Structure formats: structure tokens, C-alpha cells
Amino acid sequence: MSRNPSSSQTKNTVYIAVFAAMIAAMGLLPPITLGIIPVPITLQTLGVMLAGALLGPWRGAMASLVVVVLAVAGLPLLSGGRGGLAVLLGPTGGYLVGWIFGSLVIGALFKYWVLRRTGNTARFLAGLASVIIGGIGVIYLCGVPWTSVATGIDVGTSLIGSAAFLPGDLFKAVVTTLVALTVHRSYRGLMS
């Protein structure tokens, strides 16, 4: 039985819109500023991680891309009501670009590796590794050098400053893994 392409496209659009809205809604919580580097801790990274882990690589990346594009266009979708071109050109711009690639990597790892694992422990460990690689590694890889260039601080200081995000991001990675594996167990066709 073949699928209706129009129905599949509508489903993809709805998923992307829902997850973009979720990422934006997570921005309603105020950011936590540490003072080490001018990049705040926000809940929105959890939404980015969930988008990739639940929707797969392309739809997850598109959900993150929609939020970034709308924020850069001026909508106050980022934590603390931030938006506009300045957020992309400022110290947080690399982290925002990292959201897109982070969702893409998490989604690809979940689709082609995590969900093919058998056994709950193997799936959890693969899922957690995937979210850490995409949601922390890829996002920091984009964000740390960008912050360094935007602020004029050296990369080492930017990297040390970003270490303050690690405890919270590791917690978000665990939450994302548990939620994603539970949802995929209940709804197996989500990434198809």
C-alpha cells in the first residue's frame, strides 16, 4: 500500500511546526546568566534535542531552523524575549547555528543507530551518547569559537566558560533520551 504524498507532507509540516512552537515556548522561561561568558543558560536546548530525537534528522533540523530564522527576522522567540539579527551576530549566534546541526546529528543517530539497538540498556546508552554528541558536542563546536570571535576572548576562555553549561545540558540529554525512547516505543512510525 502506497502512502499519499500530500498527507505525508502535511504530517511533516505539522510535526515541524509543533516542535518549532515547543522550542519557542521553552524560551518563555527566563535565561540564567552566569557572567563568565555572555551566553545564557536556557531551556530551549532541551527542545532542540527533543526535536532531533523524536522527529529524525531533517524534520528536527527544520524545526530548529524555523525558530532560528524567525528569531533572526526579529520575533522575540529566544529566551528572555530576544530576537533580531544581533542575536545571530553576537556571542550566542554560534549556539543558534549549532541548534540546527545538533538536531540533524541527533536525529540521524537516533534513526540509523539508536532505534536499531535491541535491549533497553543498549538503546538508552546509544540514545544518551547520540544526544550528547549532537546536543552538546555539535552545538558547542559551533558556539565556542563563535563566542570567541564575537567577544574577542580567546577560544580557551570561551571553552572554559561554556563548561558551566555542561551539568544542565547533561541533565537535558538524560531527559531527552528517556522521553524519546518512551515515545518511540509507543509510536514506532514517528521517524518513518
From TrEMBL:
The keyword Membrane applies. It comes from the Bacteria. One of its GO terms (cellular component) is plasma membrane. It is found in: Cell membrane. GO terms for molecular function: biotin transmembrane transporter activity. Belongs to the BioY family. This is Biotin transporter. It comes from Glutamicibacter ectropisis.
